[in-house]
Structure formats: C-alpha cells, structure tokens
Amino acid sequence: MAQDQTKQFLTWLNDQPAVKSKLAGASLDDIAAAGSQHGYNVSVSTLQAIIANHNKPHTAGEQGAIGWS
Q1: What span, in angstroms and rounded, lies between the C-alpha atoms of 1 and 60?
Q2: Which segments of the chain have a pLDDT < 70?
Q3: What are phi and psi of 40, to 5 degrees?
C-alpha cells in the first residue's frame, strides 16, 4: 500500500513543477513529509526501495517494457 501511494505521489509530483522545484535537492525525509502534506502515505524506506530498484541494472527486456529502448 505504501509503495502504491508513494508511486502515486511521485507521478503527481512529476506534473507539479512548482512543488517539484521546491523539493529539488531535498532530503528523503522532506520528500516524504511533502507527500504526507499532499495526502499521500509516503515513507523514507519506500522511497529508498524505489530508488534502489530504479538504479539497478535492467535487462534489455525490462528496458523495452519501461520504454527506454
């Protein structure tokens, strides 16, 4: 549930340039707090897991599914 809420928040955040610019360079604690302020259940541990998954090497098939190929 928290991961779904965090992903929803990040999707929402991507469409909010003013909020996004305020969070540029912010700590994960600050980003999680901003998520909570906007009604999303966002935790630092979930943000860390999403970042770790994003940074892991992706196979060619995964890259195609994500739209990176």
Answers
A1: 29
A2: 1-2, 58-69
A3: -105, 145
